[in-house]
Structure formats: C-alpha cells, structure tokens
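ok, trying the design again with the full structure, not the truncated one.
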C-alpha cells in the first residue's frame, strides 16, 4: 500500500477571501443567531433556506448583466453535464425563484420570510468583506404594493440591530422610481454626465452608456465629487412613486425611526424599483480613523417577481439584509456585552480500566439529570485530566478510580479551593446539584 504524500504548506490555508470561523469566535455568531431567531419569531417571519448553487441565469437576468456582481464578482462554472452554475452572490433572487417554483403564492399573503447563510462574491478582501460572506435578511412577498411593507422590513432590521446593541445607526432612504418615470431621470443623468466622460473613471465611462444609475454608486473620489451636483431623482418621480415615498417617510416618522433622505442613494442591482435604503454605523479603521460603515441594505423589487413569472397583482416584494460579518466586526469593536452567564460545569476524571468502563454510564446519568459534564476519557493520567479541567474552566472535578468503582463512590473536588470529599454514587446527583446552586 502506497503512503500518501504530505500536503504542501502552501495548501494548508483557506483560499483568498475565504476564512474559518473558529471556536473562540462562535459566541459572537451565536449571539447574532439568537437575536435573529427572536426577532423573526416576534414579527412572524418564517425561515426559508435556498440552495447555494443556482443556474447562472437566475442572477444574470435578475441582477442585470451590466452590474458589478455579474460582470466581475460571480463564481460561475460549468457542471459535468454542461450546466452553467453560480454560487449565489445574494439571497433575494434565489428566494424569488423558490417562491415561483414551489407556488408559495398559494400560502397566506403577504408571505413573510427570513433567511441567513453564506453568499459568494469575487471581491477584494478588506475590513468586514470576504469572498465567502454571510447575510441575514427579511422578505415580504405577494402583498399589495403598499409602502407599509417597506416600513415593516426597515423596522425589523432596525429592531434586530437594537437587540445586537449596535449604536449610532443611520438609515438612508431614497426612491429610484419605476419603469414610468425612471427613463426620464436616466436621460437627465446622461445629459449631465456626458460632458464629464473624459474625467470619469474607466467603469463610469462605460456606465454612462450601459447603466447610468450606477454612476451614483461609484466609490472613486473624483466621480463622487461630480455626483454632488448631479440631478436628483425625486424631481423626476411620477405621482405614484412620489406618493409611495411620501407614505414610507410618514410611516418611519410614526415609528420614530431616524432617517436621512439620501437623493443619491441607488442600489447596485437592476431589480429594484421605488424604495431603496441602507443602514450605516460608525466604524474604526486599522489606522484609527472613523468612517461610516454600511452594514445593511434593501429595497422594493416588484419587477423581479414579474421576471420569474409571478402574475400581475401578486408581483409585489420588498426586502432587506444585514451583512453579518460586518455587524459582528462592529459588535467586537464596540465590545458589545454578549449577556453570557457562567454555566457551572463538572469535569469527569477516570483512572484505570475498570473505572473507564463504568464511566460512560455514570456520565450519561449525570447529563440526563441536567448536569453539564465535560470529560477527556481517552487520557489515563490524573494530572493530564485535571489540566484539561482547568482549561475547560470547570467548577468541580468528579474523580472515579479503581477504589471508587469497587466502593461505588465518587471523589468530588472543588477546583477553586481544592477541598474534596467522597460521596456515595447513590447521592452523587443530588450532591452535585446542591453544590452548583451555591
């Protein structure tokens, strides 16, 4: 039999932009998941999980073929059968596909869904941004085209951030119009930018022809300067879009949710109409500088449901998501109290073969009684097992050796003060519970 060759050191690391979430980080993720589940239940959202892989067309057609995600960031490959597949770069298109495929419009409408999980984009890794990243979001589908649903999604995200103790959150809101009024605004935008084309970045020179609204989303400093005097879309909204925006802002004021009307806020995906929004909070960079950090976004996407064949009258949808990686970065930086309570643990120590055989049953009896037991049964040395108990921050050690197995007793040692006593096995559970209450 041939011996496998050792894997080279260059392969013993995750791919660029991917990462492992290690055990010592999980308490932050557990906190997020607990609060997500609480808020979802509180506001009557039900969970949906979609596949990580989709047909590439699901995103190419819905997000827009000239968007950065489709042009530069999607992980696309061919299966052995020749299908073009993509790792999902965002959650909404997949959920709308599932909504249409499985006839979820037959459930009670509007349907309130939530999700969380990994997404994939081939971006340049930076603070809070990875190629495998995590999103958690809320979607309301199939209801009337009513701004109250837009306000509900924003409210749920806002309340989740409150539960996570994220402070200094600012909400930016805008409308990007509809297929009736947006063409007129696009023309005004192109007329403004056309004389500036030679001064724009390479991407924006192309956007003037292919996707003018994306000009307002460019992060290039020169392009951002020109944006400050660009025409604003609220001056071009039709009466329906204008009324929708006005009602949304009235709902936000009724809820006392602070917001800023951001005339230049657009979303990088083609399926949005009317409402768009983003959540920002203050973050600190590696050099100590403070800046606004985008942690969530969303908007209305009625046309996306139409694209997937949802019939007129039911093609109404609005949603939003938080970037979980970024939220957790902020939680760590601001030292959010996770509300963790110390749970008393006992460490089971066994010495000798006879004791080891009987240990399994004893440990299960303790666990069945609700006592948290940690063990390292594979180790034979008393010292090694007690060192493991210290690493686990256990309160008590239960020491079970040959003598104790014969006498049906257990040594209970307090690891904080070293005091120990021998207890009959028949009294062990009650004795451990008594001590853990002290």
């Amino acid at each position: 039999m041939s011996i496998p060759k050792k894997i080279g050191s260059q392969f013993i690391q995750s791919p660029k932009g991917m990462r492992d979430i290690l055990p010592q980080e999980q308490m932050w993720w557990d906190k997020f998941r607990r609060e997500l589940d609480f808020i979802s239940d509180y506001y009557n959202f039900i969970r949906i999980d979609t596949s990580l892989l989709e047909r590439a067309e699901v995103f190419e057609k819905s997000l827009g073929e000239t968007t950065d995600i489709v042009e530069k960031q999607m992980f696309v490959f061919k299966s052995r059968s020749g299908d073009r597949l993509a790792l999902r770069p965002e959650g909404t298109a997949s959920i709308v596909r599932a909504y249409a495929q499985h006839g979820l419009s037959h459930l009670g409408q509007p349907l309130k869904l939530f999700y969380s999980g990994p997404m994939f984009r081939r971006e340049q890794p930076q603070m809070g941004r990875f190629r495998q990243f995590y999103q958690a979001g809320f979607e309301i589908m199939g209801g009337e085209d009513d701004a109250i649903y837009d306000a509900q999604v924003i409210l749920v995200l806002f309340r989740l951030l409150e539960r996570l103790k994220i402070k200094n959150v600012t909400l930016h809101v805008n409308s990007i119009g509809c297929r009736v009024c947006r063409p007129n605004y696009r023309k005004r935008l192109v007329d403004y930018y056309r004389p500036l084309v030679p001064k724009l970045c390479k991407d924006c020179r192309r956007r003037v022809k292919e996707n003018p609204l994306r000009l307002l989303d460019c992060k290039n400093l020169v392009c951002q300067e020109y944006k400050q005097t660009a025409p604003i879309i609220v001056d071009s909204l039709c009466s329906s879009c204008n009324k929708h925006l006005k009602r949304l802002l009235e709902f936000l004021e009724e809820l006392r949710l602070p917001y800023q009307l951001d005339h230049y806020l657009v979303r990088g995906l083609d399926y949005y109409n009317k409402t768009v929004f983003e959540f920002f909070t203050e973050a600190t960079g590696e050099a100590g500088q403070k800046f606004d950090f985008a942690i969530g976004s969303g908007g209305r996407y009625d046309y996306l449901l139409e694209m997937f064949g949802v019939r007129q009258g039911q093609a109404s949808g609005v949603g939003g998501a938080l970037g979980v990686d970024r939220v957790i970065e902020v939680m760590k930086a601001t030292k959010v109290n996770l509300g963790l309570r110390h749970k008393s643990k006992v460490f089971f120590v066994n010495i000798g073969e006879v004791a080891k055989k009987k240990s399994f049953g004893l440990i299960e009896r303790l666990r069945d009684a609700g006592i948290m037991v940690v063990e390292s049964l594979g180790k034979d040395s008393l010292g090694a097992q007690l060192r493991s108990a210290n690493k686990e921050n256990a309160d008590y050690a239960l020491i079970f050796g040959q003598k104790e197995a014969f006498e049906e007793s257990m040594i209970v040692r307090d690891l904080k003060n070293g005091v120990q006593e021998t207890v009959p096995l028949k009294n062990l559970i009650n004795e451990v519970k008594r001590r853990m209450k002290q």
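Keeping the full-length input from now on. The first helix runs from residue 26 to 42.
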